[in-house]
Records
---
Amino acid sequence: MRSEKPLRLAYVRFTSCCGCQLTFLNCERELARVAEEFEIVSFDMASSRPDDGGPLDAVLVEGSISRPEELTSLLSLRRRAKILVAVGACALTAGVNALAGGDRAPLCEEVYGETAAGKTTFPPQPLSLFVRVDLEIAGCPPERGEHLKTLGALLRGGLPSSLPEYAVCMECRQRENLCLLLEGKQPCLGPVTRAGCSALCPSFGVICEGCRGMVAEAGRGEEFRLLLELGLSEREVKARMRRFTGVFDENR
Amino acid sequence: MRTVRIEPLTRVEGHGRVELQIRGGRLAGARIAITESPRLFEGLLLGRSLFEVPALICRICAICSAVHRVAPARPWRRPWE
């Protein structure tokens, strides 16, 4: 069923790497269909069309908030959009950006020189700290399929069902992969990480680094012990397990 | 003299703008300003294991992520050479 008027959609980004937008652009087979069903009001990675500032049916937001200008822009998007979707680890938890929290001023000056002095920046924060988020799409980068599922649901006037409540191991075992943690003796975070990626990395022999965030009731203690047994230092185990928990890690 | 501002830069990773100075119908100057939010990878790497670095800094830029992933793995060889 096609809606009479195409839905007005924007894809914007703040403090991030463009990876979420790029993932969506990589849905090459589906892009023509998306262009038919949606009016793309703003999407810097795909189009030079200037944002008309009008109301939006939905906005996808990539990245975390680390400057006052970004916050102003986020609040304005929230006012304009019926539905706001946070996409990717940076938007959900501040992702790897959060690892550079704390006092940023000296570091900014070291990296950017004296010109950085006049710029205000604060430790990167997730979107949900400032605005109501209607849907979260996890991952760094998120899955193409989750983008498409979301757009499909929007066309039907709704939102897709929420994120899976089981660990990456479940999907990994379904694909009959060798266990990288127990059999491969590598520091895989599959047991404590939220599924939904079809165990993409482990299926290519690459350990899960937890980019989709912790699964509900994650066995963190047991995972910690298993990683220590592999010979990693306590400090490195902590660093690995916190890589994507962003600002929500209570043990930071 | 007239200044044409192109903002934002599109189809590229990062926030930025271009300013073109036009005098008598000819381009007199061009400047680029990077308005990217600082992500401070230089700082967040401090004190981390060499083996964690590739997975972190490949997140600098999605377009050239592969290069960022491979380059920091090269020093891994050195200690054993």
---
Amino acid sequence: MRLLLIEDSDRLRETLDRGLRRAGYAVDTAADGRSGLSLAMERAYDLIVLDLMLPEIDGLSVLKSLREAGRSTHILILSAKDVVEDRVQGLRLGADDYLVKPFAFDELCARLEALVRRSYQAKNPTLRIGGLEVDTTSRRAWYAGREVKLTPREYRILEILVLRAGQIVSRRDLREDVNEPESDSASNIVDVLVFSIRRKLQEQGSPSLIQTRRSQGYIIETIETSAP
Amino acid sequence: MTSLRGRLTLLLVAGMGLLLAAGSLVLDRAITTRLLHAFDATLIAKAKSLETLTEQQKGRVWLEPTHEVMPEFEARLGAEYFQLWLADGSVLARSHSLRSGDLPRFGGPLAIPVLRDVTLPDGRHGRLIELRFHPRREKDEPLPDGELLDATLAVAGSREELDSSLSSLHAILVFFVLGLLMATAALVRVSLRVGLAPLNDLALQLDSLRADSLGQSLSAENAGNAPAELAPLLRHLDGLLARLKESFERERAFSENLAHELRTPLAELRALAEVGLRWPEEGSRPQVLAEVRGIALQMERIVLNLLALARCDGNQHTLWTSEVVLEAMLGEAVERCRSGLGREIAETEIELRLDVPSGLTLVTDGEKLALVLSNLFANAVAHGSPGGPVTCSATASGGEIALTVSNPAASLAPEDVPRMFDRFWRKDASRSGGQHAGLGLALVSSLCRLLKLDVEARLTGGVFEITLRGPLVLKET
């Protein structure tokens, strides 16, 4: 999942960058509204975490510009402004969520996960395809009730493929989603990770769920999502 | 609480009562006098008639019969009385109504009637006229012993009818006055209710005011229906509301700014702690602790500045006045600034310059003045243009010191200058960076007020200057 964090506080930006990367997001950061807006217009992000009081261009103007440009990226406002009017204004201008500082890091992650699920119309945090079960909250996966031990990057690849089941996901997208956007395009990091996931799934008795589409990417063919 | 309506009613009714009472007394006195005069005139007329009927001839005085011409002196209930005395005091005649009784005699002067209230022989309250006169005589009648004879006549009548009329008159006047007073009171109440209705309307309007409706203009809203007398009151109330609104807005802005200044470091601290707890291997411990220390120092600065401001506001600071050598104190303040803001000074290549005459000694609270100057230096370093000098100069004249801290400030606009001493004011509306919360110059302003120093800020040709002036100079050498 690609996430853009626009926050002017150096300490908070760096800490959240570190935490969100560890939580599995591919994070880009911006310290002011102008550079944040520029990044958001240039690249496709799944999520944007946006402060309101920003140098150069304030957060509400960034939000307005993005919506006016037709960008539907889910945006979570993270602000010290806590009065109802500010929250209402932010949500009315097109934000998807609003979190007031100070906040619990876990709550921020939970809200971001909810926004990700909303992106893929998946209301249930547990995704199921055949015998494969992916819990987007605990970031763990099981096959036929047995846990598939995955590294954070392997989990991210599997989650993206499950969330976009039925769609071909390019290697480039996967590379960016696992936070390797700057690596050489010839890098086979994604292939290595997919190979590892396949091996771990097979160890738990899974058939080959992840299909390779030559020169295009990877796909999980079928999806079956059910409520617990 | 005193009621305006009650006081006005009381004053108007009491005033009206006094006027009515005075008017009634005058009226009563006039009517009484007139009736008494009429009564007395009747008595005098009767006395004159009796005088006419009294004659003297050949040294004798007699009274012609009266029962036919003046039947009121006949003996019957309610009759009138007369008695005629000769000069020697012997009774010449008396009315039948007197029978053998006597009327009182006062012995008044000749030809001048004397009128008195008396008790009549039958016990009734009456009025008496006494008239001493020379009885009538023929023109050619010689005077006995060459002198005129004189006689004294007293005529009396009951004044019961007069007193009854006067009592009725008094009763009518009292009822009239009381009735008028009651009618006046009712009229005054109604008039005041109608007249003071705009005040009630205004009270209701004021009662309905809320913190979010302080911006309305009472003058404009009541322009068509408020009486002219209320116009000054409405103008003053509008002024008060405007000041209240401004105060509320300042308070709200202060709270919001304070919340922001504290929420952001708290968010940093919490995120740092929660990310560190979740992934302990992430980040080195000294690095995290250094971050925590930086956040704590930032919050400490805000809290200490707010406390200092609150103490200034509450006059809780005590001035410890002593002799302070200005050059030495400024040197120390500059050194503290260099050590505290060394990194910023190095990054911006700002040069700190002192232009202070040596041997200038002030009498002031040196610690607080040093705090003022440290804040001014820190402000100049933080907001001055990179590479530009920060200069502190001092001049003394007539026992007054003028201390000026100046720095180039290309980003400042003239409209920023009046707001620079507001609490939490920052040029950058995003309030980025936690080093300066916007309290330094507010603290400078408060401390200078305590030190009795005038503060003046100005922006001239891209150079920002703050000058402190006050009578602090003890000696110049």
